[in-house]
Amino acid sequence: MKVRIIERIQVKPSIWSGGKTYEYCIYPPEGSYSDRQFVLRISSATIESVPSTFTKFEGFRRYLVMLDNTLQINHNKEDKEYKQDSMFVFNSSDDITSFSQGTDFNLMLAHSIQDEVVELRVFPFMTKCNFVFVFALKAMDIRVNKEIFKVEQGDCVVVENPNEVLLDIEMGNRSIVGYLNL
């Protein structure tokens, strides 16, 4: 088992048409976002231009959570609104235009990944999945089995669990959590 803390302040931004994106993690590690050569990508982005059109990616689904604002979008010609800290799940090839500014959490998964769990939660959980992440919405302690990690708001804890041992994970505050098999 390998635990990494990816600190928000260490993540370098890159530009997208509507603002900046901060890539926390891409899998496989040698993967490329621009070449669409990956199966998982965890990022956060700012939406600065309004309206802004989300980048399309064939073969992926996305989980998006607004961290500081309500998300007002047009999704395939239908107007929708998502409150802060609620999850919006969509096919990455959908037509999405945002009419909100703010900062989001964004998880992209290739369609080849099945049976993932991605949710906002505060309660502890156990899993044998080989890939787990916890994105901190506030500063807190996160316990992975018996080891405690201190994280700040916007940090992401990634657990690689290739031997699929049982993980017991507890968060000190509400977080965005995902567990899946790569």
TrEMBL record:
Pfam families: HutD (PF05962). InterPro entries: RmlC-like_jellyroll, RmlC_Cupin_sf, Uncharacterised_HutD/Ves. PANTHER family: PROTEIN VES. This is HutD protein. It comes from Myroides phaeus. The lineage of its organism: Bacteria, Pseudomonadati, Bacteroidota, Flavobacteriia, Flavobacteriales.
